[in-house]
Design brief:
about 375 residues; alpha/beta; Rossmann fold; Dehydroquinate synthase-like, alpha domain; seven-stranded mixed beta sheet; 13 helices; about 45% helix
Length: about 375
């Protein structure tokens, strides 16, 4: 791909009949009409978005659809994780049915990971499955949640416990949309960018180490390269293991620790998903060091990097009380990744070299969490 400004990069997710393209570049929303037309059996679609995104970007999408003669209905949801619920799912499904969305129509998810996961799930189950297109508007959604077909909602028992694999038909990652994203949300998304380097590409991590501030600013070509490389890595992993029976689990680096913190803080504004991943990744490297699997200083290296992005890297960086390690361990057992009562961790041998560990003794986890808490 050329590395010039204003170029659009194309990353293919190779999944046989369910293959699709991820387009990464500036100015894609204004081209959405022509990019969507080849997917439409009739010139009609439905858009699911949230209030914040609608305020900034829905009118532009509506105008471009109008200009292309594409009829559209939109549902604007409350922003935030609480929409990823049974009630939110019902609201989206009923809206799609009331809008006359048929089996051959297309649903557009215009928003961050919450909207993508929710609208994707609704599309996956509506009339036993309709196609959907992701127009991710957060950095996190552009590099992670819009790609790979994991969709779903939360249950009172835990996060993302109800859902289906349903691949989108197209992903339009328009980098211009990131310019309206609050700084804290950009940093949270950046945690998932750094994750790709940490889990499997040391050269990418080194490149990020030179440009972390530039990527977060989201206004130079560095963000395009970071989004493209992240999508390439995710596409490659998903093509090998769509339903997470093996290598896809590496994408959960930092998530066993992080999800427990997210659950313990009530999926609230106290700790965003990407922030929990940031703390969890540092813990994963420190835990790997404590188990003698990698250089014990790598946790510090990861921490320095993530701090430059403005991310929390320690449990002590979470505002308010966090439950004790023994309670966090209990929460970890409810995680989707737990299998046969055993916890699953992604551990590291080096930066860019990680593996799935399914045989970690609980006592080691508890000892580590207690020591980590005392040190933080
Ligand atoms: P989000 O969708 O809640 O968006 C974050 C905030 O930014 C919201 O308030 C939203 O309204 C606002 N926003 C979105 N785009 C904006 C824009 N362009 N300008 C201004 N404001 C904007 O959160 P997120 O971080 O994008 O996604 C988190 C969710 O993604 C979690 O539910 C997580 O479980 C899920 N996730 C899913 C996958 C997957 O593979 N499906 C992967 C990672 C995370
Ligand atoms: N975000 C983890 C995955 O898509 O598998």
């Amino acid at each position: 791909m050329p590395d010039t400004e204003n170029a659009t990069d194309k990353v293919r997710v190779n999944l046989g009949r369910r293959s699709y393209d991820i387009l990464v570049g500036d100015g894609l929303l204004p081209q959405a009409g022509e990019l969507l037309l080849p997917l439409l059996k009739r010139k009609r679609l439905a858009i699911v978005t949230d209030e914040n995104v609608a305020g900034f970007h829905l009118a532009s999408l509506a105008a471009v659809l109008d200009a292309n003669g594409i009829e559209h209905a939109s549902l604007i949801l409350n922003p935030g994780e609480s929409s990823k619920s049974y009630a939110g799912l019902q609201q989206v499904c009923e809206f799609l049915l009331a809008s006359g969305i048929e089996r051959n129509d297309v649903v557009i998810a215009l928003g961050g990971g919450v909207i993508g996961d929710l609208a994707g799930f609704a599309a996956g189950v509506l009339r036993r499955g309709v196609r959907f297109v992701q127009i991710p508007t957060t950095l996190l959604a552009q590099v992670d949640s819009s790609v790979g077909g994991k969709t779903g909602i939360n249950s009172p028992h835990g996060k993302n416990l109800i859902g289906v694999f349903h691949q989108p038909s197209l992903v339009l990652a328009d980098l211009d949309l990131l310019k309206t994203l609050p700084k804290r949300e950009r940093a949270a998304g950046y945690a998932e960018v750094a994750k790709y380097g940490l889990l499997g590409d040391a050269a990418f991590f080194d490149w990020l180490d030179q440009r972390v501030e530039e990527v977060i600013a989201c206004d130079t070509d560095a963000v395009r390269k970071a989004v493209r490389r992240s999508c390439e890595m995710k596409a490659d992993i998903v093509a090998q293991d769509e339903t997470e029976t093996g290598v896809r689990a590496l994408l959960n680096l930092g998530h066993t620790f992080g999800h427990a913190l997210e659950a313990a803080t009530g999926y609230s504004n106290r700790l965003l998903h990407g922030e929990s991943v940031s703390i969890g990744m540092v813990q994963a490297f420190r835990f790997s060091g404590a188990l003698g699997l990698c250089d014990p200083h790598l946790g510090d290296h990861a921490e320095r990097h993530l701090k430059r992005a403005g991310l929390p890297t320690r449990v002590s960086g979470i505002p308010g009380e966090v439950p004790p390690p023994a309670r966090l361990l209990e929460i970890m057992h409810q995680d989707k990744k737990a299998s046969g009562g055993k916890l699953v961790f992604i551990l590291a041998r080096a930066i860019g070299e990680t593996f799935v560990a399914r045989d970690i003794a609980e006592k080691d986890v508890l000892d580590f969490l207690e020591k980590d808490r005392r040190a933080s």
